[in-house]
């Protein structure tokens, strides 16, 4: 028996050594490939940093706290409680499906590269379309961070100074100012980002625990009937309970997106084939659990629902009714802004690397400019500038629409879920197609016989969520209350089609893993 155990341990050790050796070769190959195509990024992110990066980037319970006004008017507590469970399970299925692909080919391009690799036909077309959608989705996701922080700052200003009347351009100016910090930090203070991420991750957990305890001890508690059996469908104009519940999902589904952000840092992660998948799945499970517990606590400690619902930022009134103190309320709400702000640094770095990778494969116009890596700073400086300018332009939406905050939240959720769907679909088709001449080159993390089940579950979840994302939150709909997420995403898709027809089909290179024959 002892000999059998020794053999098994030796075999496992051999498998681990083989994975490590393969990843060392893969790291060197990627470095050589980058140097030949515009410059190389420095590999410096270890396992702990990779998990911290993804864990903090999502900051799900904080984002849910700032956006749960959507669910108060549509769906109510039933949408928040049961929607949190639904979103946690569904997002885990999606993250697991993408983690399997990350183990096969951990690449900055992620979704667009996988779509180009696994699409049954028209690989270049689907790769380019996926690239446009993914880059746009992440630019919108990056915009949501300063939008959330701006909403918090305006809410606190109104709370402390009732005479203050916020103008829409105030939010735009705040968003512009906030964008400067991660922009400069990514190339002047890059070495400080790792300790900042570590501190941010600690705050993400500590503030969560402190908030839960404070609300549970100080607040007047709601009834079980209110928390688990209240379905709001007569406030926003949407009378159908199913529609109201579906629209309320935005609060709990949006914060769990973005787990793929660490993928766009793959070229800077050591041993990415094992560490990136672990980071993605760990981040989703932890953030989904924290979001559910926090929102359940908020519902049990919500206080006077009418007062909370009437506030532009309802979480302020939740803390104020619980503590009875303006300084304490300012502290707790400011904690939300601090964590979202630290997360902004991660999102900004992630999307700049994605734009750089897509340019490296000639996906964007003027790709040679944005594919360059600054030789001294070892970062894609031009791509950083592109993202900063894009964020400033998107911030102008707030001046023209009173519901722009809704667009900043629903846009990234809608676009990101679309970007998740196609790679999973194409992998599923490849997985169940026995006639394909080449087997799938599985990485260290693979789902085996459970793969098709997980992929189908992930796709069903994505389709269900996508149904509700373009709906307006209130009826009747006019020019100012319109949800522009659907039309804007549609415009991006049309723009990508035009790009394909004009120059994209000649310019774009199919970004399969170079040098690997098993990616046929």
TrEMBL record:
It holds the Pfam family AA_permease_2. The keyword Membrane applies. The chain crosses the membrane at residues 44-68, 80-104, 125-149, 169-189, 196-217, 242-263, 284-305, 331-358, 379-399, 405-429, 449-471, 483-502. It is found in: Membrane. The lineage of its organism: Eukaryota, Fungi, Dikarya, Ascomycota, Pezizomycotina. This is Amino acid transporter. The keyword Chaperone does not apply. Keywords: Membrane, Transmembrane, Transmembrane helix, Transport. InterPro entries: AA/rel_permease1 (IPR002293).
């Amino acid at each position: 028996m002892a000999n059998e155990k020794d053999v098994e341990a030796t075999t496992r050790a051999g498998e681990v050594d083989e994975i490590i050796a393969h990843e060392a070769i893969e790291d060197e190959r990627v470095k050589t490939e980058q140097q030949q195509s515009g410059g190389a990024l420095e590999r410096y992110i270890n396992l702990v940093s990779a998990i911290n990066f993804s864990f903090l980037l999502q900051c799900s319970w904080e984002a849910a706290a700032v956006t749960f006004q959507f669910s108060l008017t549509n769906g109510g507590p039933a949408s928040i409680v049961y929607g949190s469970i639904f979103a946690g399970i569904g997002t885990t299925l999606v993250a697991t499906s993408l983690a399997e692909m990350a183990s096969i080919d951990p690449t900055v391009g992620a979704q667009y590269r996988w779509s180009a690799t696994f699409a049954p036909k028209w690989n270049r077309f689907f790769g380019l379309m996926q690239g446009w959608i993914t880059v746009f989705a992440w630019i919108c996701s990056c915009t949501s961070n300063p939008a959330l922080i701006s909403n918090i700052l305006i809410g606190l200003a109104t709370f402390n100074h009732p005479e203050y009347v916020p103008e829409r351009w105030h939010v735009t100016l705040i968003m512009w100012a906030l964008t400067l910090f991660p922009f400069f930090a990514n190339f002047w203070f890059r070495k400080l980002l790792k300790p900042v991420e570590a501190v941010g991750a600690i705050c993400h957990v500590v503030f969560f625990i402190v908030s839960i305890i404070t609300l549970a001890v100080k607040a007047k508690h709601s009834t079980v009937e209110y928390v688990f059996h209240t379905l709001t469908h007569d406030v926003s104009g949407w009378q159908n309970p199913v529609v109201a519940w579906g629209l309320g999902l935005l609060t709990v589904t949006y914060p769990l997106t973005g787990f793929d952000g660490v993928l766009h840092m793959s070229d800077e992660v050591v041993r990415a084939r094992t560490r990136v998948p672990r980071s993605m799945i760990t981040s989703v499970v932890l953030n989904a659990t924290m979001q559910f517990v926090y929102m359940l606590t908020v519902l049990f400690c919500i206080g006077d629902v009418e007062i909370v619902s009437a506030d532009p930022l309802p979480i302020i009134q939740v803390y104020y009714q619980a503590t009875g103190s303006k300084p304490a309320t300012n502290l707790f709400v400011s904690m939300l802004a601090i964590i979202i702000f630290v997360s902004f640094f991660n999102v900004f770095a992630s999307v700049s690397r994605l734009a750089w990778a897509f340019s490296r494969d000639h996906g964007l116009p003027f790709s040679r400019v944005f594919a360059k890596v600054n030789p001294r700073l070892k970062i894609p400086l031009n791509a950083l500038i592109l993202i900063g300018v894009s964020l400033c332009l998107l911030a102008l939406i707030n001046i023209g629409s009173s519901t722009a905050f809704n667009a900043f939240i629903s846009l990234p959720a809608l676009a990101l879920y679309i970007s998740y769907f196609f790679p999973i679909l194409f992998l599923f088709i490849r997985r169940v197609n026995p006639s394909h001449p080449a087997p799938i080159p599985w990485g260290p993390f693979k789902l085996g016989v459970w793969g098709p089940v997980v992929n189908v579950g992930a796709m069903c979840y994505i389709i269900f969520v996508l149904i509700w994302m373009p709906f307006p939150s209130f009826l009747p709909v006019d020019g100012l209350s319109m949800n522009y997420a659907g039309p804007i995403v549609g415009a991006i898709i049309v723009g990508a089609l035009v790009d394909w027809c004009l120059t994209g089909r000649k310019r774009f290179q199919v970004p399969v893993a170079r040098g690997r024959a098993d990616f046929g």
